[in-house]
Design brief:
By secondary structure, this protein is of the alpha+beta class. It is globular. Strands 7, 8, 9, 10, 13, 14, 15 and 16 form an 8-stranded antiparallel beta sheet that branches. A 5-stranded mixed beta sheet has the order 2-1-3-5-4, with helices on one face. Strands 6-17 form a two-stranded antiparallel sheet. It has 2 domains: about 120 residues, Chitobiase, domain 2, CATH 3.30.379; about 170 residues, Protein Transport Mog1p, Chain A, CATH 3.40.1000.10. α4 runs parallel beside α5. The chain contains 9 helices and 17 strands.
């Protein structure tokens, strides 16, 4: 009898261990999400959309993408009313619901993932009236935009991890000791001292990735120091067709056309810099985005940068794609 009970217990334990958790089962049954890059479904009624709260939403979601030469909206916005939210829209990758709740003492926001599809981000914002809603959206503008941008960067990063230029990636790892997923259209690699530059070498939609290190002086990273080091490194490593030409940070009245902010990427503090590059004494130029991180153990600053040349097309998705590349950068195990 004891032997039979022991057998049944073991059998029950085996069945429990082999049964997927509810979360795993949900992942297995959720359909894939849909949507173009940086497409966002906004569910909000006409009363809110035509109020001051609608103005705040437009500033956040349809405002210009930072760091671009020409105006391009942050997102491809698809707006519908709550009555129009039918089955067709449930699997959109990015969804935002905005509504009024007279019983809400304070405005509030809720973030959910993988509710009706995978991957998916769903943000719900509510307040007691349009005035409170407008003020809340205005205060949280950057945070709200960052939620959806991070979602799209994560999606692009996942695609890069599955499909990338293995030869260029291997060449970068061998030379500077960093692993990074380089888009397949990037074909060339130039090496320098503690420096690599990978480029697609196209006349339009040209993608470029740069990674370099330089000694850390013990000070916190800031825009002025970053630009000085950037200009020095790129002048040495990315010359133009003539001796008096090289890639540099675009400036106006000696001030760099760039902006910086501190960001948290993969749990690490970094300096994010967005701005414009140009060819000194040349006609080329375009947007760039950089992530700089202090490695205090090695006493150096690590900079990963993506820059784009595409004067006749929109650049938002190109820059964002290179930004996703930056988020794949990791030191290799042996370095």
């Amino acid at each position: 009898m004891k032997r039979m009970i022991t057998y049944l217990c073991l059998l029950l334990l085996l069945c429990v261990s082999c049964t997927p958790s509810s979360q795993e089962q949900k992942k297995q049954t959720l359909p894939p999400s849909k949507g173009l890059p940086y497409e966002l479904l906004l569910v909000v009624d006409d009363a809110i959309w035509n109020s001051e709260a609608g103005d705040s939403l437009r500033q956040v979601l349809q405002g210009n993408t930072p760091g671009l030469l020409q105006p391009e909206p942050m997102f491809r916005l698809l707006r519908i009313t709550p009555k129009g939210y039918v089955r067709t829209y449930t699997t959109m990758r990015n969804k935002m619901f905005v509504r009024l709740n007279p019983e809400a003492v304070e405005p509030r926001v809720a973030v959910e993932r993988n509710v009706e599809a995978m991957p998916q981000l769903q943000v719900a914002v509510e307040a007691k009236d349009t005035k409170a809603l407008a003020a809340f959206i205005g205060r949280r503008a950057d945070w709200l935009a960052d939620q959806f941008v991070d979602m799209e960067l994560a999606a692009e990063t996942n695609r890069l991890r599955k499909k990338y230029n293995k030869k260029i990636t291997a060449g970068i790892a061998a030379h500077v000791g960093f692993d990074v997923r380089i888009p397949e259209e990037i074909k060339s690699l130039k090496k320098g001292e503690d420096f690599v530059w990978a480029s697609s070498e196209q006349v339009e939609k040209d993608l470029n990735f740069v990674l370099y290190t330089y000694p850390w002086d013990g000070e916190a990273l800031d825009l002025a120091g970053f630009v000085a080091c950037r200009d020095s490194v790129l002048k040495l490593n990315i010359p133009g067709s003539r001796p008096d030409q090289w890639v540099t940070t675009a400036k106006e009245k000696e001030q760099p056309l760039a902006q910086a902010r501190e960001v948290l990427v993969k749990g690490r503090d970094m300096l994010e810099v967005r701005g414009f590059w140009e060819m000194h004494n040349g006609a080329l130029g375009g947007p760039f985005v950089s992530l700089a991180e202090v490695d205090s153990v090695r006493g150096e600053v690590v900079v990963a940068e993506g820059f784009v040349y595409s004067p006749r097309t929109e650049c938002r998705d190109l820059v964002r794609r290179m930004e996703a590349v930056l988020r794949t950068v990791e030191r290799t195990g042996g370095n």
